[in-house]
Amino acid sequence: MHFRSKIRLTSALLLVVGGLSTQALASDNPAMDAAVARVEHEWERIKYQTPDPRAQHAQIEILARDAAAVTARYPGRAEPLIWQGIAESEHAAMSSGLSALSDAKASRRTFEQAYQIDKSALEAGAATSLGTLYYRVPGFPIGFGDKSKARQYLVEGVTLAPDGMDANYFYGDFLITQGEYAAAAKVLQRALASPPHPDRPIWDAGRRAEIRVLLAKANAKLRRS
């Protein structure tokens, strides 16, 4: 069985939180911020500027290892853990079979560690990422997907980061999967209203394009109802 057809994941999922600006990233540790930013920018290059799927898969696998190395250098910090989880979940989305599910479980463990350390880090990146995993991974008996847990984490994400582009984007996407089109349209409009991120133009443009596609889908469903 190919989980690629069963599991629909995104970074940031990611990171799931791929939308955090480097300005918002600033912490009390500039060296850590710089290391996390390098992972962040490499992710967006792979995500939005590497069209070949095989190259993407190979590069994201390397990035996951690099992100884990950053986590090891800065133990007890949520920020590198979140980006490690994003890379792991992206790798899961590009894999198939048991490898995909194994990677998804690994990313869940990583996000859970970050969540326990700091729920608000990187615009509620851990909560948003966990919520995304729970609604995109199949449920029992194939995987650990759980729509109730997904909603809980995603609502927490937008509560902690009400103006976060990714928090609103993934919550809006979830609402569409649940047929809640009016609520989804409202959340996605809020995502589009997020302040621009001039420090990350590749991600900013790519994510906004994805939001517009989802918003058009929600509005089309509303017109037919």
Description:
- There is one protein chain.
- The chain is an all-alpha fold and 225 residues long.
- The chain has a single domain, classed as Serine Threonine Protein Phosphatase 5, Tetratricopeptide repeat.
- Helix content is 72%, strand content 3%.
- The protein contains 10 helices and 1 strand; from the N terminus they run E-H-H-H-H-H-H-H-H-H-H.
- It has helices at residues 22-25, 30-49, 53-73, 78-94, 97-117, 121-136, 147-160, 165-177, 181-192, 201-224; one strand spanning 12-17.
Quickly describe the structure.
The protein has helices spanning 22-25, 30-49, 53-73, 78-94, 97-117, 121-136, 147-160, 165-177, 181-192, 201-224; one strand at 12-17.
Query: Count of DSSP E strands?
Result: 1
Global Rg: 16 Å
| Distance separating the two termini | 36 Å
Number of domains: 1
CATH superfamily: TRAP transporter T-component
CATH topology, what is it called? Serine Threonine Protein Phosphatase 5, Tetratricopeptide repeat
The H-and-E topology, N to C, reads as EHHHHHHHHHH
Helix content: over 70%
* Structure classification: mainly alpha
| CATH architecture group name | Alpha Horseshoe
Specify the CATH class.
Answer: Mainly Alpha
